[in-house]
Write a structure and sequence with these properties.
mainly alpha, single chain
Length: about 260
């Protein structure tokens, strides 16, 4: 090998070394990595926080800091608009640490992620019919919040979980009524009655029940089933004596968010 070629190879090696990124965290303790990740999370640097949490889990997979990282990485991913990864992190934590003192937060996080997914879905309802939408996220959110409320009633997240459950119940009920109205306007009266009755039987405390009963009254009337119409009318008057709704409201197709 000539001297000039050897020099060239050395130059190229030094150049390659100079461009190799240096991992400043390689000698950090698990506590330091965790604290840095928390700082990045607080500062809104979510991707950097996720990277540090994942580094902590891979280098030090056991111990208190690793467990906290498993939980908090889900929140960082949630804030970074990565709901699929965030849900996977929460589910993984619940599976691996079902008795952890903070497992209530993992359930709450699951509810929150799906709740926000559902709100994003709801935003689109201003442009399209609700019967084209899948309430899966809302139902999964409700189930997660219910875990918090029923299994961890003393949890700091229980009160907010209960409030969100109420909102979700009302939203789901309103969606079912919207579908019932859709069927009614298309003269699919049996389908309209079935949807409306489902709301009455399963969402009895929701304000949407008022409109569900109205759908039943109007649909039975259109089918000429006067005895069932009278029963639905009695229920409507009994439960909503000041109701000002009429069948004309159904034909106009009022927006779903005005159900309550």
């Amino acid at each position: 090998m000539t001297r000039s070629l050897a020099v060239l190879i050395l130059i190229l090696l030094f150049a390659a070394c100079s461009t190799t990124p240096v991992d400043e965290t390689k000698d950090w303790s698990p506590e330091r990595i965790y604290n840095e990740a928390k700082s990045e999370l607080s500062a809104g640097n979510y991707k950097k926080a996720v990277g540090l949490y994942e580094k902590l889990q891979s280098r030090y997979p056991y111990g208190h800091f690793a467990q906290q990282a498993e939980l908090e990485v889900g929140y960082a991913q949630f804030k970074d608009n990565e709901p699929i990864q965030a849900l996977a992190a929460a589910d993984r934590f619940i599976k691996l640490h079902p008795s952890h003192p903070n497992v209530d937060y993992a359930y709450y996080l699951k509810g929150l992620i799906n709740f926000n997914e559902d709100l994003g879905l709801v935003g689109g309802l201003f442009q399209s019919d609700l019967n084209d939408r899948d309430p899966k996220s809302a139902r999964e959110s409700f189930d997660a919040f219910r875990e918090v409320v029923t299994r961890f009633p003393e949890s700091r997240y229980a009160s907010d979980s209960a409030a969100r459950m109420t909102y979700l119940v009302n939203s789901l009920a309103a969606g079912e009524v919207r579908i019932a109205e859709y069927y009614y306007r298309r003269q699919a009266y049996v389908a309209a009655v079935n949807r409306a009755q489902y709301v009455v039987e399963n969402y009895g405390q929701s304000p949407a029940v008022e409109r569900a009963l109205l759908v039943m009254v109007a649909a039975y009337d259109a089918m000429g089933v006067q005895d069932l119409k009278a029963d639905a009318q009695r229920m409507l008057v009994l439960n909503f004596p000041k109701s000002k709704l009429s069948a004309a409201d159904l034909k106009r197709g009022r927006s779903w968010w005005n159900v309550w």
